[in-house]
Design goal:
Blueprint: E1 2-13, H1 14-18, H2 25-28, E2 45-50, E3 56-61, H3 71-77, E4 79-88, E5 104-105, E6 110-117, H4 124-131, H5 145-159, H6 165-180, E7 185-192, E8 197-201, E9 203-204, E10 212-214, E11 224-227, E12 238-239, E13 244-249, E14 252-258
Antiparallel strand pairs: 1-4, 1-11, 2-3, 2-4, 5-6, 6-7, 7-8, 7-9, 8-13, 10-11, 10-12, 13-14
Helix pairs in contact: 5-6
């Protein structure tokens, strides 16, 4: 499990999202309000953005966010119009390491998963490996269900170049449902293609983890945000409905699609 936050809008320093809000991810690392299956998020943190060349960049640290002496300097000096960040509470059997710390990126996408899949290695993993093209397997460095979900999503998109991201996410959720065979799956996902933010709030065999969005928070003029827990006390935060996909586009109003 983990807590996620994402930002899309005018360029801001990383600290505006990660550190400054009253209920920032920094605070949520030790005082989450809606984390159901853990108490703290001290097993790593990371953030991703798009660099000056428009390609994904990522920083991950397997230590607790409050223990990183680099963060104040990075938070003050890194600026972007799109951020995806998370703090991690590791699932048993998925070690704390750089390789297992999110967000994950490739040459095009940013990806973060808040959730878990019960008995993943014995149950669902063999089915995913059977479906994955061999070209994707060498890109997987860790052993989390999250990274395998990202690989499967990338395969769906590469095999179907005209498939919209929201359709690929819906297909991924359908396949997980088929593979899960009754196992509990918590499947909140946030992903970006560099232009939009996409979020899935979904679960199988349990309640969905919390997820919110806002396009009107006074702290972030002309911006759109997604977060596992509300970052501010603004009344404009809305709950992402369960079993739906949220699309945030800087040129369009928010869109919600049922799975």
């Amino acid at each position: 499990m983990c807590r996620i936050a994402a930002y899309l809008g005018e360029p801001i320093a990383l600290g505006r999202l990660l550190l400054e809000p009253p209920h920032s991810l920094y605070v949520q690392s030790w005082a989450p309000r809606e984390l159901k299956y853990a108490k703290v998020n001290a097993d790593g943190y990371g953030f991703a953005w798009y660099g000056d060349d428009n390609s994904p960049a990522v920083y991950v640290n397997p230590g607790a966010i409050w223990s990183d002496p680099n963060l104040p300097h990075l938070a003050r000096n890194l600026v972007s119009d799109l951020w995806l960040a998370s703090v991690r509470s590791a699932t048993a059997g998925l070690p704390v390491s750089h390789a297992n710390t999110q967000p994950f990126v490739d040459e095009e996408f940013l990806f973060d998963h808040n959730g878990l899949i019960d008995d993943f290695h014995a149950g669902l993993l063999p089915a995913i490996i059977q479906e994955l093209d061999p070209r994707h397997l060498p890109t997987i460095r860790g052993n989390t269900e999250s990274e395998y979900l990202f690989a499967m999503l990338r395969q769906l998109l590469s095999d179907n170049p005209d498939m919209p991201m929201e359709a690929a996410l819906a297909e991924l959720m359908e396949r997980v449902g088929q593979w899960a065979d009754g196992s509990r799956c918590l499947l909140n996902i946030v992903v970006s293609d560099g232009e939009r933010l996409y979020a899935v709030r979904h679960a199988i065999g349990d309640d969905c983890p919390s997820l919110y969005y806002t396009t009107d928070d006074e702290t972030y003029p002309n911006a759109q945000l997604i977060a596992s827990e509300r970052l501010t006390e603004s009344t404009f935060w809305q709950t992402v409905p369960e079993h739906q996909i949220l699309i945030l586009d800087p040129e369009e109003p928010p869109e919600l699609l049922p799975l």
